[in-house]
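Holo prediction — manganese (II) ion.
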Amino acid sequence: MQIIYHGHSFLEIITEGWNILIDPFITGNSKCDITLDYYHDKHITHILLTHGHSDHVGDTIALCQQHADVAVVAMVELCQRLESKWVVHTESMNIGGTYRQEGRSVKFVRAFHSSSNPDGWYAGLAAWFIIKLWDKTIYDAGDTSLFAEMASFAKYNLDVAFLPIGDRYTMGLEDAVEAAHRIGAKTIVPIHYNTRDVIKADDIEFARQVMLHNYGVPKVLRAGQYVVL
Ligand code: NI
Ligand code: MN
């Protein structure tokens, strides 16, 4: 499978039977390598949303208008909001729950972060995901601070983890290095940085520290680059 990074927190996962977009922030994402047109003739099965902030819901509505059959998998309050106005097919979730189809699953776990729609509508708790696709496990931290429970993540046997490093709204570099330590993933990819001035971060320094402490193999991705599992 292929996990493509499109800047900020926008990931695209292509695997057997599922083509997933996570937090598809295209319009206004200064690091994004694609435009909405890119998806016109592409197949998308799911859009996963970690929370209701505009840099994560992003272009979800426009993508759903392009692809009528796409399922938006998100917290129940966020789904209700999207359904009430724009989106036809949602799969509503809550913290602790797992969305499953044969051989593939997405577990919603609570992120330490806020969540509302840009118009102020409450969007439920913020989530992060443990995504199992066949024999591979992916951790998408969403927007979060460092939290104690990360120390128990070894049980998930993570192949790759996507961790925010931008600070201000999420973990900063130092906490993200500690997160890498706690979760014990094989590969660590920094996200959610350098898209705005206030979340500037040194990804090479992050990679250096992860490598120095042997907290996994760091992989810095530019938009359009990807990880293969
Ligand atoms: Ni946020
Ligand atoms: Mn964010």
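READOUT: The first strand starts at residue 2 and ends at 5.
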